[in-house]
């Protein structure tokens, strides 16, 4: 029974301190509740700002991704066009070579015709410069003996 009474006395001795501690805790919780509401409002405001900023960043990222896809599509289209032009050039190379050879042949023919025209003019000028031309007729010897 001694033990109970000693424990009892301890509780009785500590009860005013416990009452003060409980009162202080209640005061702290009221103050904490006031601070908590202010902190909660600040937290909510900051969270809303961050959520808005995150949404804007995600929108910008989406726009950048779509622009990137568009640029990649344009690049691929340009590469396809270049490949098509190259293929067309390779297919047309035999025709191009034939046309170049024909052009060379025509150019050489034109040069030959100009040269012959110049020769004919020179001969015509030579004939006109000589007032007296000599005509020569070749007659076979058999015809000369028979006809006398």
Describe the structure in your own words:
This protein is mostly helical. It is 91% helix and 0% strand. The termini are far apart. The model has no long low-confidence stretch (mean pLDDT 79).
Summary keywords:
rod-shaped; 148 residues; 2 helices; mainly alpha; single chain
Secondary-structure blueprint:
Elements: H1 2-129, H2 141-147
Given helix and strand content, the structural type is: mainly alpha
Calculate Rg over CA atoms.
59 Å
**Which parts are unreliable, with pLDDT below 50 for 5 consecutive residues or more?**
none
Shape: rod-shaped
What's the order of the H and E elements? HH
Q: Please give the share of residues in helix.
A: over 70%
Fraction of residues in β-strands: under 5%
Number of continuous helical runs: 2
- In round numbers, the mean pLDDT is 79
Quantity of strands, as a count = 0
The largest sheet, given as strand count, sense and whether it forms a barrel, is: none
Distance between the amino and carboxyl termini: 193 Å
Quick structural summary:
This protein has 148 residues and is an all-alpha fold. The protein is built from 2 helices and no strands. The mean pLDDT is 79.
